[in-house]
């Protein structure tokens, strides 16, 4: 990865046109061919960029641009379209290259698989007398996250999400329609469980007779400090 801090102006030419006037900016040149233009603000989003695949060509500016103080001109050409990112550099403040190596990717804490494992181990979170039948109960349209029995012995299908929205309720509805055709399982009721459940999803679930359970992930993994709470 190459990091260049420079006084520069930037023009995007192609399907749309955009211009960034002269200012000090961070130019990020990545090994995949992408080039990103950042300012000291605006959070993570670049002011402009060229996505890969692309090629970077550095050339001497034309005479008119030399008179305006341009030291070198970058042209970042998209390999798929005629779009170009043109960077006119007036002054280089910093220029460094770094070998980052292979990245293992983002490992998220608290993904649905973790919630599923914890809930299976603590199935009583859903209610007193609950017992686990199995995780990942396979059906013809996909696996049900958790299949359990409640205190009365009735079958319960549980759909787990980190953030519960209407799509998750629809998914559980399809599972319930299929599972209730199996005489060995029917009647099967549903529980929609998530760390956060959107109001629209909760309303739809209740309309379809599906219970909603909000999961406290920290408490389930034993890191919730009850004594430090204000309430």
From TrEMBL:
The name this protein goes by in its record: Endonuclease NucS
Tell me what gene encodes this: nucS
Q: Where does the UniProt entry say this protein principally localizes?
A: cytoplasm
Q: Which CDD domains match?
A: NucS-like
Annotated ranges, domain Endonuclease NucS C-terminal: 111-231
Q: Which family does it belong to?
A: Belongs to the NucS endonuclease family.
| Keyword DNA-binding among UniProt keywords | yes
The function of this protein is: Cleaves both 3' and 5' ssDNA extremities of branched DNA structures.
The Endonuclease NucS N-terminal PH-like domain is annotated at: 2-103
Q: Which UniProt keywords apply?
A: Cytoplasm, DNA-binding, Endonuclease, Hydrolase, Nuclease
Q: What is its EC number?
A: 3.1.-.-
The places in or outside the cell where this protein is found are:
Cytoplasm
Its top-level enzyme class, in one word, is hydrolase
Write out the GO MF terms: endonuclease activity
The family database entries (Pfam families) matched by this protein are listed as: NucS_C, NucS_N
């Amino acid at each position: 990865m190459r990091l260049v801090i420079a006084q520069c102006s930037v023009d995007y030419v192609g399907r749309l046109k955009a211009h960034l006037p002269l200012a000090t900016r961070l130019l990020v040149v990545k090994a995949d061919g992408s080039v990103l233009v950042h300012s000291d603000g605006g959070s993570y989003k670049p002011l402009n960029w060229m996505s890969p695949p692309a090629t970077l060509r550095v050339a001497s500016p034309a005479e008119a641009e030399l008179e305006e103080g341009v030291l070198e001109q970058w042209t970042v050409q998209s390999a798929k379209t005629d779009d170009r990112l043109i960077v006119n550099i007036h002054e280089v403040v910093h220029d460094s290259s770094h070998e980052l190596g292979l990245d293992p990717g983002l490992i998220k804490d608290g993904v649905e698989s973790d919630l599923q494992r914890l809930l299976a181990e603590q199935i009583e979170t859903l209610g007193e007398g609950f017992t686990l039948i199995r995780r990942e109960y396979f059906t013809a349209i996909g696996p049900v996250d958790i299949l359990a029995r409640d205190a009365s012995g009735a079958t319960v299908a549980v759909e787990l999400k980190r953030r519960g929205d209407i799509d998750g309720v629809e998914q559980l509805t399809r599972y319930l329609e299929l599972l209730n055709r199996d005489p060995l399982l029917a009647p099967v009721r549903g529980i929609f469980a998530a760390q956060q459940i959107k109001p629209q999803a909760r309303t739809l679930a209740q309309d379809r007779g599906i219970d909603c359970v909000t999961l406290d992930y920290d408490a389930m993994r034993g890191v919730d400090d009850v004594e430090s709470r204000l309430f």
